[in-house]
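MODEL INPUT / OUTPUT PAIR
PAIR INDEX: 1
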Amino acid sequence: MEWLSILPPLVAITVVLWRKEVILALFLAIFTSEALLLLGGGGEVSLGTPLFGLLASLERIISIFTDMGNSRILMFSLMVGALLAFIRVSGGVTAMVELLVGSGLARSRRSVGLLTSLTGVVVFIESNLSVLTAGILARGLFDKFSMSRARLAYIIDSTSAPICILILLNGWGAYILALLSGYELDGSAAEILWNTVPLNFYALVTLGIVFYTIIADKTHGPMTDAEALAQKLDTDPAHEYPPTQARFMVIPLLTMVGGMIAFMFWTGNGVLADGSGSKSVLYATALACLAAYGMMLWTRKFSHIKLVEIGFGGMGELLPLVTIVLFSLALGASVRELGTGVFIAGLVGDYLPLVLIVPMLFVAGALMSFTTGTSWGTFAILIPIGVPLIQTLGLPPSLVLSAILGGGIFGDHCSPISDTTAVSALASGCDLLEHVKTQLPYALAAGGITLVLYVIASALMI
């Protein structure tokens, strides 16, 4: 029966490809998982099974709100809509675009791409904040230079997670250190983690491909079609709202970034890496919304009632994507209980040659992350599997850990049911399925190169 645990993600992916409808696909996957859990609990198939499965699915979705971290992510996603609406309607976006173009910082497609990716690199504290900051800053610039929103989504998505897993002075690093604590290894957990940086081939290769596409100004696969369509459309932001002052965009953005750093220190009792990412990003976004609201109210061009209308209108625009994030979290919780990740991890096998164990851990991490939609959940399952392999077989700790981390990010980049993928689409204003379709060839290319590199590294280091 264990093999049935992969059925829910297969249902989601099949429906997404067949019907091009993500919300329906995620709900059917949740329903499938909950029905399997009912049957696995000793229940028998009956006429009431679909009804009980439906009720269990609704309860699973509701249970997401009992986790305060999940509730913060959903509130943050909604408030992003209000923030985007405020800075757009205020004329701050168009003013910022004109300022960057006039200053020469954004004088070409290449410089726009570099500015976007470097923004993501600088804001390495939290992946959602990195994606959001770069997405908000670059939306108008991409429109100005007739660059597709799909390309923007790819750049911010493929910059944020690799940077966060390489720099590690953030919640990612603290989380992985917590998973490693309690194991007796040669060297401290921090030393092993820092040594993964040059061995995290997927993150390094992904960043290399991102900068190649920017500097060479070349696109491949479905991204080329998206770029061609964007160049035919007139999406200049100046045609939407007339420019006012760039500060209507700059001050809320700086408030959000500065607030994030301050709240990470505050929630971590003075230690940045120990801070709560979900709390900090929610509080920082709320402060940014308050700053934008206050500035627009101060101009006396907007009344309180009008600003409330603008804010809720912005939230409404993002409601479908927020629903996708909610269903993704619910599906992840359900398949964790079903044991999908553990089953896929077991596919690595017990009789592999030593030189293939590390590459197969990378593949297992990719499959788990792809089918469950979460890289952090993948780390939580695979690290307890990988550490005993290190201890019993004498494998290089940092090499094994880097393969697990890279595999988790690889699968997350490819997965249409990942909440990270949905947030990247949200931040860039790109359709979710278009983002998945256009990013997939780049992620698969990076994954293929990484697999070869892990085989070579294993041959040299083991």
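PAIR INDEX: 2
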Amino acid sequence: MKISYIFFGMLIVFLTGCSDSKTKNSHDHVHSGHDHTPYSAQDTVWSHKLIFPSKVPDRIILNLTEHPESSIAVNWRTDQQTDSGFVQIAVATDGPEFSLDGVRTVRAETEVFENKNEKHKEPLVKANYHSAVIDDLNPATTYVYRVGYGGDDDRLWSEWFQTTTASDRDNDAFGFIYFGDAQNELKSMWSRVIRSSYAKFPKVNFMLHAGDLVNDRDSNLEWGEWFYAGSFIHATIPGIMTPGNHEYRKEVLSSLWRPQFNLPQNGPLDEIRETCYYVDYQNTRIISIDAVSFDDKEHSRKAQGQWLDSILTNNPKKWSVIFLHYPVLSVAKKRGEDNLNLKTVLKPIIDKHKVDLVLTGHDHTYARGEVKNLGSGITATDDTGTIYAVSVSGPKMYDSEKADWMQRRGEYTQLFQIITVDGDRLSYTSYTPLGKVYDAFELVKRNGKKQLINKIPDTPERMKKDFISE
């Protein structure tokens, strides 16, 4: 009996050991499988969904064209296995019947592209960028569109987006949102601003970005975060943008700028194609100046100056808005002598044509005020002068310096601005991400005269010292 107990115990130990051995080998096998997933090239990149493309379109964005009442531009990205792209578009309907008849298919241009950001140790990214301009659209009409590879497999198409063309009647009201620098912490902190702006103004007609959209011009991760932050908004609300100094390095524009945007090409030089251009949106001429090229290159400065003078001289529109990255009037501390080329070359043209609004970024703070337009460089006119604004939408902040031209100033505040144009009235309101009004004014232009009506809220200016002790 005793021997039987001993034998039985030995048998249990043996069987348990075999079971442990099998379990251990099984776990080893599973672990080994994880080491060899089909995504091994991506597993080491935490943000691979923001960086790498696939067959399914991503980074979809609408841009305004020269004729936003009758056309729209769209860009997107796929992997390189997807060697062509198409846009399908139809007049929107209350139900899915638009898909039964009347869907138009437009073939996109496809550009093979790859880049690797060594500075941030990003992986090599190979992609195809697809771009198309859809013409022959009706004014003030809501369309649905989608982008993809074509065919009947819905998995290779984007969702259907909805967007509305501009009106062909000058006096119809419209509105756009103006953002200063996004630049840093795009996914974590700028996302709140662009999404808050859309939540407050979902019917806005377009969005305007005044440069430094990202911090490092060729960082696929940063561009991925910028597109992620705006998500479907980029594909629904057309955008226009001008480059900042962070889209340049050593006078060379980001290699990603032209592949991923589809902007007007009516500027003065090929080297600033899609960075210096203008759009006529109903009764307003909106002009992008490539401030970095303007400041760095004498021939570009001369060409942009002559071109600006020409398109303002021959401007049939009631309102004129210029946007560029560098402020004509510096706001941040120790930047008072910056951008002298803008002051000496650009400002006289602005004065000459009494430009209504100049929208800028770069200084990572806020200021807005009126500057009288100088007639012949000697005396100021009695009419309201040009309104200059400097704003920031991202979390990077600088200190500011008070100047006489400023009527509202602010620090350490993320902002977006809604600008509406309705006939002879232009309204401007600056909001925080919480939807609080930080600054506001109206311009009224009648019978050749322009009046400024300040609507500054009765709240203290926000200064960095109120939040951070030195």
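PAIR 2 NOTE: The chain is about 25% helix and 30% strand.
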